[in-house]
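REVIEWER CHECKLIST
Item 1: Sequence provided? yes
Item 2: Single chain? yes
Item 3: Sequence as submitted:
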Amino acid sequence: MSRAGSRAWVPWQDLPILDEKLDALAQMMAQHMARPFPPGFRGLDVEGRDMVMLDSDAYAYAASVYEDLLSDQASARLTQRLTSAFGKVLPAIDDEYAAKYYTHLHNMVVLSAEIESQRKK
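Item 4: Structure as written out by the authors:
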C-alpha cells in the first residue's frame, strides 16, 4: 500500500486555532492508546526500523509536543527522523490493520509538527 506522494485530507487541516489542534492531537493520542498493537509486528523490522520503537518514538514525540516540552532543535530533528522513517515503512507494510495503525501514528506526527510550526509563528 503506497502512500508516498499522496496528500489526503486530514481532519485537522482546517483547524486554524492552536487549541483546537491540541484537542485533536489529544484525541488521536487517546485513540492510539486504545488500539491493540498489530499482531506479528513485535520484534519486526521493516525497512530497517524496529516497529515497536517507531511506535514508541512517534507517541513520545506527540506527547512532548502536546506538553510543549521540546526545544526547536529537538523538534526539528525528531520531525525529520520520524517523517523519513514513516516514508520508508508505510509503503512496505502489507498488513491492512498494521497499515492503518501506522498511518494513524504518522498522522499524529504530522499534526504534532504542524502544532510546533504554528507555535513558532
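Item 5: Key structural point noted by reviewer: The helical segments are 18-34, 51-66, 72-89, 96-120.
Item 6: Recommendation: ____
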